[in-house]
């Protein structure tokens, strides 16, 4: 029996060749490394790049230019989603994940070795932007492949739990990146700007090595193996996905919008806002992000497991609503200028409101598509959302605050984004509640 576009069920003959727990852990470790590489740029964009790569600009302009380079990386993500989605549906999920891990690591290491504006002039921000594009291209193919490896190996009725592990890589990557910068940020300003900020980038070499060993030990996705055995692969997966599944692609983009925007607002914009506007010391602002990221990492699999009983769409809707409701209370806590309340504000958005949605992102969004175009469809929907939302969210928030001088207008911007996500998840072509959970348990390999 072939996979159904409506239910995303898998073939009965398609049995996992590797223990699902092993695959889940491998997906978590590999994705953590990739997102560590991608997220350290966000922290550096808030704390280092305005002074090192855009020194001639005033503080506001320098910050805007720095966040613009952060956003540029997202522009390459759809291309990465198309390319890796195509070959992931044609050649295999595992092979693409090895390439994305190596490519991401190389770009990150080169960033750590890149001279600043004072040394090579305009070439410095240009090379920084090019390397960021490479990062974006690689991470555009990472999410879909890692998610499918975990989801397609998982047994029926447990895909929410096992599918949460690659999603955990995002907050875990944030925690690692923030922790690395937290240590570096304790250095005196001169040492931090001279060489301290480079250490987190260069550490990527070690992390990539560990991730590669673990990723190579996992077998190919069983769903892809069945496609090869039965010759079910389509010639142009991306074209097929857009032709027959364009509506789910757009709804996935809208569904993920709030999650992507709030993640980058918390880990990048709020660090800059807290240290420059509110008066929270740089190190303490980073601690806030670190605490929230650790809590989120622990919470993701809990909500993933709950989605196996309550339904993935139901769980995601809960998270989308909580994100919407958390914005103004979080801002009120952050604006007090007290470190503890700043930490609570970041944690409210990133560590409490987001996990119910983020924990089920992978299985919800991938199982909307049949396996023949699953890598392409899920990757494109996800990366479209990143470009439309997360890419320039810190820059937009900085510009809004710079133009109005009021946090309220930034909060309104975030509220609009979250409202779009609530509407989109409601429109996804899946039932809700017990009916959805029942269908999830009926998914067969």
From TrEMBL:
Residues 23-433 form the Major facilitator superfamily (MFS) profile domain. The chain crosses the membrane at residues 35-54, 60-84, 96-114, 120-140, 161-187, 199-218, 249-271, 283-303, 315-334, 340-368, 380-401, 407-428. It holds the Pfam family Sugar_tr. This is MFS transporter. InterPro entries: MFS, MFS_dom, MFS_sugar_transport-like, MFS_trans_sf. It comes from Ammonicoccus fulvus. SUPFAM superfamilies: MFS general substrate transporter. The keyword Transmembrane applies. It is a multi-pass membrane protein. Keywords: Cell membrane, Membrane, Transmembrane, Transmembrane helix, Transport. It is found in: Cell membrane.
């Amino acid at each position: 029996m072939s996979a159904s576009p409506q239910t995303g069920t898998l073939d009965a003959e398609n049995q996992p060749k590797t223990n699902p727990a092993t695959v889940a852990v491998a997906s978590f470790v590999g994705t953590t490394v990739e997102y560590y590489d991608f997220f350290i740029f966000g922290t550096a964009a808030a704390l280092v790049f305005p002074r090192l790569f855009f020194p001639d600009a005033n503080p506001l302009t320098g910050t805007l230019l720095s966040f613009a380079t952060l956003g540029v990386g997202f522009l390459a993500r759809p291309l990465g989603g198309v390319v890796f989605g195509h070959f992931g549906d044609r050649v295999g999920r595992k092979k693409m994940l090895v390439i994305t891990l190596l490519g991401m690591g190389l770009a990150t290491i080169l960033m750590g070795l890149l001279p600043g504006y004072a040394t090579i002039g305009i070439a410095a921000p240009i090379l920084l932007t090019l390397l960021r594009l490479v990062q974006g291209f690689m991470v555009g193919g990472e999410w879909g492949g890692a998610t499918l490896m975990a989801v397609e190996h998982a047994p029926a009725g447990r895909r929410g739990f096992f599918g949460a592990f690659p999603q955990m890589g995002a907050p875990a990557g944030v925690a690692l990146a923030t922790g690395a910068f937290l240590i570096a940020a304790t250095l005196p300003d001169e040492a931090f700007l001279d060489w301290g900020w480079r250490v987190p980038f260069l550490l990527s070499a070690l992390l990539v090595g560990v991730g590669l060993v673990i990723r190579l030990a996992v077998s190919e996705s069983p769903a892809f193996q069945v496609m090869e055995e039965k010759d079910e692969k389509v010639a142009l997966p991306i074209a097929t996905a857009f032709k027959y599944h364009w509506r789910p692609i757009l709804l996935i983009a809208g569904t993920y919008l709030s999650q992507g925007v709030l993640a980058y607002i918390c880990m990048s914009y709020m660090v800059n806002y807290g240290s420059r506007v509110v008066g929270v010391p740089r190190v303490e602002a980073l601690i806030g992000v670190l605490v929230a990221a650790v809590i989120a990492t622990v919470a993701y699999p809990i909500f993933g497991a709950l989605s196996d009983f309550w339904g993935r769409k139901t769980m995601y809707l809960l998270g989308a609503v909580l994100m919407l409701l958390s914005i103004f209370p979080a801002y009120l806590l952050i604006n007090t200028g007290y470190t503890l309340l700043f930490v609570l504000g970041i944690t409210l958005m990133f560590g409490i409101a987001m996990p119910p949605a983020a924990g089920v992102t992978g299985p919800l969004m991938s199982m909307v598509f049949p396996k023949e175009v699953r890598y392409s469809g899920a990757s494109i929907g996800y990366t479209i959302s990143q470009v439309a939302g997360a890419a320039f969210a810190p820059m937009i928030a900085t510009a809004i605050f710079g133009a109005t001088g009021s946090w309220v207008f930034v909060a309104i911007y975030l509220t609009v984004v979250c409202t779009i996500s609530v509407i989109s998840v409601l429109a996804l072509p899946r039932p809700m509640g017990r009916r959805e959970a029942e269908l999830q348990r009926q998914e067969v390999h």
